[in-house]
Amino acid sequence: MEIKKINLNKKIVSNDFKIFKKKEFKDKRGIFSRTFCKNEFKKAGIKFEPKQINFSKNSLKGTIRGLHFQDIKSKESKLVMCLNGKIFDIIVDIRKNSKTYLKSYSIILSDTNNFILYIPPGYAHGFQTMTNNVDILYLHNKFFDNEIYRTLNPLDKKIDIKWPIKKKILSKKDLNKKFL
């Protein structure tokens, strides 16, 4: 795995999250790549030990999942990668005392760019599918706990995310979440 930090916006303020690029080994049989290496993360200053792995299959272009997080006290962090298709991935700073509170950061994750997004504690996460048939893999450092699971409405004007696909497909739970 190659560690690569990418300037997501022209005026990036936060260095908390990181982007990694999977190094691929190709031959006539196909591709092999490593998606997680504890030693390489340690060199990058990230302490991350997966406790749970989740998979998301999304059939339709325009599907939005998020903005989800566990209570900030849980110190949940995630690795997110797109195994098939393409997504507009978004993270939102939810640390109330942060200079970047409610600021969002976006990146395109796809099966061709091989980026892996590290999301540290204190950020809500969501994405919109930019193609049909999108598969996402998440590695979490904490177990899911419904008692501390939280959602922000992804259409909240205070967060003001510019979703790239006009037709938005959301769950009732996400769509009915109150605005801030």
CATH class assignment: Mainly Beta
The helix/strand class is mainly beta
Average pLDDT, all residues: 88
Low-confidence residue ranges:
1-13
Main β sheet profile: 6 strands, antiparallel
Please tell me what the overall shape is: globular
β-strand amount: 35-45%
Question: What would the keywords be for this entry?
Answer:
disordered N terminus; single chain; Jelly Rolls; five-stranded antiparallel sheet; globular; 2 helices; 13 strands; 40% strand; mainly beta; 6% helix; six-stranded antiparallel sheet; 180 residues
What does this protein look like?
With 180 residues, the protein is mainly β. It has a single domain (49-175), classed as Jelly Rolls. Helix content is 6%, strand content 40%. It has 2 helices and 13 strands, in the order ββββαβββββββββα. It has helices spanning 38-43, 172-175, and strands at residues 2-3, 18-21, 24-27, 30-33, 52-58, 64-70, 78-84, 86-93, 104-110, 115-119, 123-129, 134-140, 149-151. The strands form 3 sheets. It has a 6-stranded antiparallel β-sheet with strand order 1-2-10-7-12-5, with no helix packed on it. It has a 5-stranded antiparallel β-sheet with strand order 9-8-11-6-13, with no helix packed on it. Strand 3 and strand 4 form a beta hairpin. 26% of the residues are buried. Mean pLDDT is 88; it is low at 1-13.
